[in-house]
Amino acid sequence: MSTASTNDPPAASAGPAAPIAQFFIPAAASLQERRPRTLKHGDTFAVFDHNGDALSGPGSPEGLFHRDTRYLSHLYLTVNGKRPMLLSSTLRDDNATLTCDLTNPDLFDDNGKLLLGHDLVHLRRTRFLWQAHCYERLTVKNFDERPQRIRIDIAFGADFADLFEVRGTVRAKKGRRFPTVIEQDRVLLSYIGLDGRKRSTRLSFDPQPDAVRSDLLTYELDLAPHETRSLFIEIGCDQGEALSPSFRSFFVALRDARRALQKSSSRAASVITSNEIFNEVARRSISDLYMLMTDKPEGPYPYAGIPWFSTVFGRDALITALETLWLDPEIARGVLGHLAANQATEVDPASDAEPGKILHEVRCGEMAELGEVPFRRYYGSVDSTPLFVVLAGEYLKRTGDLATTSRLLPHVEAALTWIDEHGDRDGDGFVEYGRLTAEGLINQAWKDSHDSVFHADGTLASGPIAIAEVQAYVYGAWQCAAEIFRRLGRPDRAARFIARAEGLRQAFDAAFFDEELGTYVLALDGDKRPCRVRSSNAGHALFTGISYPERAKQVARTLMSGSSFCGWGIRTIAATETRFNPMSYHNGSIWPHDNALIASGLARYGYRAEAARIFEGLFAASTYIDLRRLPELFCGMPRQRAQGPTFYPVACSPQAWAAAASLSLLQSCLGLDFDPNALQISFREPRLPTFLDEVTLRHLLIGSGSADVSLRRSGRNVVVEVIDRRGDIRIQTAT
């Protein structure tokens, strides 16, 4: 995938550095089994169970995290010494707050006498994140006809574990903990790392608890019949002296958090359809995208996913921005600006950096600062750089924003130079990858598991490896570079890039297409031997248009065959292949973003019916998933009637490019396109999937105006109706 980890163990032959080099996530605890509740704001995220607790222990991903460190590893609420029973646990539709409704179990004294029957005390935990704080209001209401004395205990702890430790890495040495500082209404937990940096967690309480220890606070509440009491808790990460929490500070922060979410998401077009379940999918997708968004100096930037990847990733953000370009172009502008600002300028083997190369990943934790993991500022992805150029070109086509494009031009040129001087390692015209350090990632395309690139007999490919989809991205980069230079008044440069693209297209067809397979091979290894494997990678050749039309027909047929398309989506590896395993990370699983890019490619070549089948499969899967939230991936088991998909145990959820997948699929089926110069929105051969009879898109931005459009099924056709337009905008339908 596009992260610095793989869920597969390192290859036995990789040598002593392999466990470090792979940074795999041990599947000791299933996220699907836990189905945690997640919150995020900025560089802070939290993972809680359904009760709102964070239970520490081996393999637990729960807690409050800030800048790749867990600042709170344990939070456990009890009523009279017993864990309350769960009534419900819900995230607001906009992900602003988590609300957990709980009630008391039967409570007995030491002699077994019933003191309080179940369901007489209601507890509601309302929680959100804002500016490196976790805010909570706990309301306790006595529904009994008699007064009750209720003891609320909240146990807490902070292990200050680096995220890579939480993921399973064992460290030989760690920093040291400071003694806990206890005051009447607050507790300070602190740690100094081996990097010399002090990290602290401050817990503050209002009203003042009846008792506070280094790991426990206690409230003794005397509640009259039907009386309600509210308790407020603030948990701050690396905060200085803070005011005591209060009713006012909680609600001011809540107001500000909701306003910020509303302001960012208001840029997006809205989607309303005839299918209420899909409306829930769309609302959750948009909410997840804007929750994962982090404001950078250059603009909004979608972090990759929770819990393992809540940070800057190049590839993830670029693909997410491409998926959502029709919905909110500002995301693409922010991504391009931030990646340009962090583009490599020199060779640094330790971080796999070369001049012009685009970021893979940034980490801020102790282990990254010390170099125990190489990801402090890491450039080990082969496709981020061409995708950067692709997004720059597509952003210009979508918006006509020449001012931003002109500012990006030096970075686009540096990226194109990297493709020539560093990406093409042997001068054969293809871009290959191979790590510059033994601590880097072995595979540096989006399928970055150690065993994701192999030959037909299952033998792992040796590098440098030219993987299929990267050649397609480079083709797209040459095409987009031509558009950029043409629009900036440099037709000579544009013509040269068009020629480069056509030359690559011919070479790619000759070296990668395999008539017997009926598709493109997975890769060429270091000896230029083709990896004759049917994979989803071939579908990305359709995404950028490198495929000749007659080849596209064969690729589409192979991708939609029963061995690849399992009913939920297209598998990463077809069931016919030696290493196929539907439960693996990259060798038979289904990734929503992968399917969205393939569907976009199918639509490009006119195969909208096939794109609609993919859309239907992923939508059907989402109807079985908690919160209607498509995860990072799920298992590639065949779809069975009246049964849901098989989940992958440690898939991230939410994940940005998975959240954007349904929105991208909708665009592909509708043939939605924009021409900012002509102020025209077009629908080319629109097709509605079987589960949608009508789609209304509001606030489609183009130029300084916008339009609201409705599409509805009429027999075998789709009728497009303009509801409203603001500005001199044209709507065109092509059949």
Automatic annotation (TrEMBL):
GO biological process, one term: carbohydrate metabolic process
Transmembrane feature ranges: none
Domain Putative glycogen debranching enzyme N-terminal: 39-233
SUPFAM superfamilies membership: Six-hairpin glycosidases (SSF48208)
All residue ranges annotated as the Mannosylglycerate hydrolase MGH1-like glycoside hydrolase domain in the record: 316-621
Protein name: Glycogen debranching enzyme
